[in-house]
Design goal:
The structure holds two protein chains of two kinds.
Chain A lengths: L1 E2 L1 H9 L6 E8 L6 E9 L2 E5 L9 E4 L4 E4 L7 E5 L7 E5 L3 H12 L3 H23 L27 H6 L16 H6 L27 H25 L1 H7 L5
Antiparallel strand pairs in A: 2-3, 2-8, 3-4, 4-5, 6-7, 7-8
Chain B lengths: L1 E2 L1 H8 L5 E8 L8 E8 L2 E5 L9 E4 L3 E7 L2 E6 L6 E5 L3 H14 L1 H19 L33
Antiparallel strand pairs in B: 2-3, 2-8, 3-4, 4-5, 6-7, 7-8
Classes of the chains: A alpha+beta, B alpha+beta.
Chain lengths: ~260, ~160
């Protein structure tokens, strides 16, 4: 299978966020010695090159379907990326110190696309709850947007959480897949195939909170939610200008 | 460039957000249209021939790209490095075309990250709590607002 290398190279060199970078020792595939390489983690992709200043990439590791593990090694501060299916690889690394080792492990654990997708759905649910809670207070002057068109993604298997469970339960234990970073990304992708099973053609894609086909712009969304606030501020400032005399009279006189 | 091919092939076999036979052209101008099985898995587009082979022909990373409507049933994916570098996909219907565009845009890791940061910021603003704290990932670089600074530790509520 070919991969479009130009796209990968461009992505690595672009100014998209770098989630972590630094030197690590990587165990060779054929040679068993560890070689020092500069690693750049962006999203679910771990790029590596000989030196930080090099333009050419030596390689990339796509971080989906693997677990991050501490490993037995003659090298200190070692850890590995493990694909457990037969015939698939284990990448072994060694960091320069314990802090670096821990930091890399933590960063790699939260790197997969599946993990981010779960987080986004959880956040979306919490957001709706937060907005809903706000609108139930009678003193609030503006009306919350209508959420009737939003369909949360529904998780079917027992290894995952329904969005309603995520929404109502506040305990961290309610969602094992999002639990602190001991849970591997493998859990999300391997043990929960129904998470992404879309046999029913009418099921909305996992992250589709607003059901709009076509342009989806969450900046617009942000604008919409802020609109009522802006209108209120505009209204209040108008009142302020027009009623300057009234304001003076309202000042408390301590004299 | 080395990459973890076998693991990526395994990924291509995962349940997909979207898969269909589409006419595909590119990335060079003048490439002919070929019917391909196109499958979207996480932020990759896997391209296979119509005969069921063991692995796809190719994998395309869907980051730093521009997805555009070319005409009623055609969309393109252009990569920002070169203007001429474009993959063009022909769908069967307008609706299918719209659905593909929508799915590809939303599949990008960077798109999802922005949404996460948006929700995190809003939840913090509305509730005074950082929703990522319970998962122990508040400090992770990947979840910070775009200016790189973490959320303030003093909770605040917007006066409404």
């Amino acid at each position: 299978m070919k991969i479009d290398e130009k796209v990968l190279t461009y992505f690595e060199s672009s100014n998209s966020p770098v989630d972590k970078e630094g030197y690590l020792y990587k165990k060779g595939e054929i040679k068993t010695s560890y070689q020092k390489r500069w690693f750049v983690l962006k999203g679910n992709l771990l790029f590596y090159k000989d030196r930080q200043t090099d333009r050419d990439l030596v390689g990339v590791i796509v971080l989906e379907g693997c677990t991050v593990q501490l490993c037995e090694s003659e090298e200190k501060f070692a850890f590995s990326l493990v694909w457990s299916e037969p015939g698939l690889r284990t990448y072994k690394f060694a960091a320069e110190d314990q802090a670096s080792q821990e930091s890399w492990i933590k960063a790699l654990l939260s790197a997969s696309h599946s993990y981010l997708a779960l987080l986004v759905v959880d956040m979306e649910s919490k957001y709706r709850d937060a907005v809903g809670a706000l609108s139930s207070q009678p003193s609030k002057p503006f009306v919350m947007p209508n959420f009737n068109t939003i369909q949360p993604a529904v998780f079917v298997t027992s290894n995952t959480c329904t969005s309603s469970a995520l929404g109502t339960a506040s305990s961290p234990n309610s969602c094992p897949n999002l639990q602190a970073l001991t849970i591997s990304s493998k859990t999300a992708s391997k043990k929960s195939p129904k998470l992404r099973s879309k046999k029913n053609a009418s099921v909305v894609p996992m992250f589709d909170p607003f059901q709009t086909i076509g342009e989806y712009d969450f900046n617009q969304l942000h604008e919409d939610y802020g609109k009522e606030v802006k209108e209120l501020i505009a209204m209040w400032s108008k009142k302020g200008h027009g009623g300057a005399n009234v304001q003076d009279e309202n000042l408390i006189d301590f004299g | 460039m080395r990459f973890n091919e076998k693991e990526l092939v395994l990924l291509s076999r995962q349940p997909s957000e979207r898969a269909a036979e589409l006419g595909m052209r590119g990335p060079k101008k003048g490439d002919v249209v070929k019917k391909r099985l196109v499958k979207l898995v996480v932020n990759f587009l896997f391209i296979s021939g119509l005969m069921r082979k063991r692995s796809p022909i190719g994998a395309l990373l869907l980051e730093q790209c521009r997805v555009e409507r070319e005409d009623s049933q055609t969309f393109s994916i252009a990569f920002l490095d070169e203007a001429e570098r474009k993959y063009v996909f022909e769908c069967d219907t307008e609706e299918q075309c719209a659905e593909w565009i929508d799915s590809i845009i939303k599949a990008s890791y960077e798109f999802m990250r922005k949404n996460l940061i948006f929700y995190r910021t809003e939840i913090h603003r509305l509730t005074g709590k950082d929703p990522l704290e319970q998962y122990g990932i508040s400090d992770e670089a990947r979840f910070q607002v775009s200016n790189g600074r973490p959320l303030p530790t003093v909770p605040f509520l917007v006066a409404l």
